[in-house]
Amino acid sequence: MALLLxxxxxxxxxxxxxxxxxxxxxxxxxxxxxxxxxxxxxxxxDMDGKICIPGLVDIHVHLREPGQExxxxxxxxxRAAAKGGVVAVCCMPNTSPTIDxxxxxxxVRKRADEVGKxxxxxxxxxxxxxxxxxLSEMGDMVAHGAVAFTDDGRGVQDSGMMRRVMxxxxxxxxxxxxxxxxxxxxxxxxxxxxxxxxxxxMAGWPxxxxxxxxxxxxxxxxxxxxxxxxxHVSSRRGIDMVRRAKAEGLPVTCEVTPHHLFLTEEAIGAxxxxxxxxxxxxxxxxxxxxxVEGILDGTxxxxxxxxxPHAAWEKxxxxxxxxxxxxxxxxxxxxxxxxxxxxxxITFERMVELMAINPRRILCQEKVALMQxxxxxxxxxxxxxxxxxxxxxxxxxxxxxxFEGAELVGRATDTYVGGYATMxxxxxxx
Amino acid sequence: xxxxxxxxxxxxxYSAEDIMTILETAKTLSEVNERRIKKVPTLQGxxxxxxxxxxxxxxxxxxxxAEKRMSCDTINFGGSSTSSVKGESLVDTMETLNSYKIxxxxxxxxxxxxxxxxxxxxxxxxxxxxxxxxxxPTQALLDLYSxxxxxxxxxxxxxxxxxxxxxxxxxxxxxxxxxxxGSTVTLVxxxxxxxxxxxxxxxxxxxxxxxxxxxxxxxxxxxxxxxxRLEGAPFPSEREYHMLFGLTQARDALMRPDAxxxxxxxxxxxxxxxxFMADHPTRSVILDQVYAGICxxxxxxxxxxxxxxxxxxx
Lengths: 430, 314
Hints:
Chain A is of the alpha/beta class. Chain A has helices spanning 74-83, 102-115, 138-143, 159-169, 183-186, 195-200, 208-224, 236-247, 258-262, 285-297, 312-315, 332-341, 348-362; strands spanning 2-12, 17-26, 29-34, 43-46, 51-54, 56-61, 86-91, 119-124, 146-150, 175-178, 191-192, 204-205, 228-230, 252-256, 302-303, 378-388, 407-417, 420-424, 427-428.
């Protein structure tokens, strides 16, 4: 099985490539990158005007299976990923039952093998049932393929417990990914504490509720030496804490989401749009700016979606009753190109670092570069494609996308996983 | 005639002229309540649903009386009969009520924004009768009415609102309403009972020193300490609250001679007010507020159901 991508604009800072060339893929691997290439047999595709990058990896995704298949399942969630140009996701363990033991890890991996349209990397829970009380069987989960540990959706409240998690995880060489939320301070917070929480008459979720645990977990990283990945950092001070931890040389990484980059609390108006209810909440324009500054100076390692599908009936309720989270994996690439790359805030190379290279590095996954010998996990982008989020529906089972109606330029047209197309010319390959 | 509102959900969408229109009509309609037969046929044939999804006695009975005195057909929906007990969502409940072809829904809910959600699912007008910690616009209107009746104007008055601002939907509407009408507003509370951004509501000043504020104001609006709504014990004891923020006989001397005392009820005697102040013959307008509730709600019904152009015979 051979594939020739003709006249594609290859961009990959790992091999310092940024030029139009041909790429030959055979048996799932890139076998040649160069000019005027041909293959004796196989498929040749003309990619004139398109960009090829190492495939996107989104390391913060809720696939909802097992247990919440009315929101999403592994089939629909990975279709949504492929549609967004994503070749691999890391799925969060807050399913039902929780991914806190090897059986559930096996189940998810097996389903992903059967029905997945992208690679599925499994994050196991740090603690049993995400309760923050007893260590989960991390060793057994690693033996069955788990790649990271997190209690995402909750912060581990007890500092001694979090230390134990990090100390114990150290032996497996896995990163601990931390959802930072001090439950005492955050309470029933619904939206960022401040002007909007006051205007809408709802309990505030102050940035300090996140920052306290960011600072604590950085301290525990220093104490234990275990790699720490801070999830969905949303505030200026949070970013600054990560910046200082990195300057100190600690093994700390962090992620930001498109919604924390490009939306503010002001987007939540008198319509109480529950699709904008996310955790941590949308914050201020100054926080948006700080996240971009973090992207520019290298503090931010990756952009992830925290793709969090919920059924329409679950979101069409009183704001305070609605679950947290929005979908985003189908819009993420277009948003980053439109908001950051097209205006010249960052280069395509930096985008590739943020959305393809660093996510793999954080999860200690095999490097994928546009060079001979690498796995052909590729994303093909039409950088001039104009489209509107949600106009053609979604591959996800859920429609709770906070960017619905956003007009974007730039979209993935083809997604290759191990040399096989999961999306071709904008359509999922069945 | 500029009044063109379909809903009364967010008081900040109302202009000073809109509010004055409602208050003046309330004044006119108050006469109905003085008759032996307290009923006019003005809103005959209009169907109003009172949808009270959390316990309420005063607001609900005030709305009901106002509706009956205006001759609306009224049904009550909620409380222990509420469909949410059976697992129905608010949206589905509203869709059901909408199929009854109702003209107006009066909604009380423990969730902020519930009236906005309901309004999306009905062609009827919606009146917010209190949503969570957010707003309570008819309470604000009746307060304005009472103050206006007492003071003859709202412009240039200095009003202190004292107590649990953070959990108060009354404040969510009253502070912006007072600002719309040209009053000055000072909030008085410990920081544990203040919202994160009082300025967003429109407050001119914030103080935790009641005795410094009292001599400066024309109206002292005491909020109820809502024991049912207090999370995480924001003050150590009712005794200390009364000491620091209670309006007591001892504080009477600090007040201007013509200053009045308001309270949305029900009163916790001995907590936010002592009996001397609650029953003060010249200062307390607390029972006038209750009466104003009927008059202003009659007026709100009148204007939202079409005002003079509603096509009714009267």
